[in-house]
Amino acid sequence: xxxxxxxKTKQFFFxxxxxxxxxxxxxxxxxxxxxxxxxxFNRFLSFLSENELFLAKNIIFLLILTILNWFFEIxxxxxxxxxxxxxxxxxxxxQSLGALxxxxxxxNRIGEYGAKAIYYSKPHRKRILLLNLISNMxxxxxxxxxxxxxxxxxxxxxxxxxxYFRLSRGLIVVFIIASLTFFGVKQNKYSIxxxxxxxxxxxxxxxxxxxxxxxxxxxxxxxAIFSFQFYVILSLLGVDLGYFDAxxxxxxxxxxxxxxxxxxIFDVVIKGSVAIYLFDLAGVAELPVLxxxxxxxxxxxxxxxxxxxxxxxNFNLPKTEN
Length: 322
Prior knowledge:
It is a multi-pass membrane protein. By secondary structure, this protein is mainly α. The protein contains twelve helices and two strands; from the N terminus they run H-H-H-H-H-H-H-E-E-H-H-H-H-H. Helices cover about 75% and strands about 0% of the residues.
């Protein structure tokens, strides 16, 4: 139906879609900041002001960490997509931030897959989808590995009451899922994000070990930056925790929050709930934790998505599809 529409009508709908994405992103940012049930925005601002977080040196340092976080994400995407096309840093920035804006209010940021793929002509889109899946799996792998290490130290250092009956049921469920996945891989009947596991496996093996290792390294660097930023904000908000003790909780928090399916806009709520529980073990009050989580979301999602809206509005389809 779309292909049969007149050119001007197509252009009108195309502009309407781009405007809808940008308006939707701004609306969700507004909702999260000013209609936040867990933390009043005025209270949030006054608390930051009380702790002198608005001093120029603090703002500049936090913004530098945000820029570094997204710089390494952009460099990682540029590196991963080099198997298909050589991108400039500016092109990789456009695709990364534009995709962030388009996926801000989608479950698990799934809109990012389509947003990045649409920058490429049809013959390349399936491989772009796979590369984006691999990029996210790399970041998740780092989160899981460091999160498990953090969780081990967490159980050693803090008294955590466990419901062993529920835990055993959970382990049984995990075992069943792992078994089904294993047999599914053997029979090639299961898929991830719509791709057969066999196809993903072959695609990954063909990329080469050095390629995957460097991608994981960039994911690790990015993780180190945003987890350090979380610690810095906690320190600025008056939380007296050593770096090692804080990282035990931070890595455990990211592990738990990452395995809970959520819409990106609610990511701050999920992380806030998990963070409150975990930091309470160390005697940290609720207000600085919630403020830290909200500020992290503002710095690493809301502000970059505002810049990404420029790229969304100026986006044009590949020349072969205009």
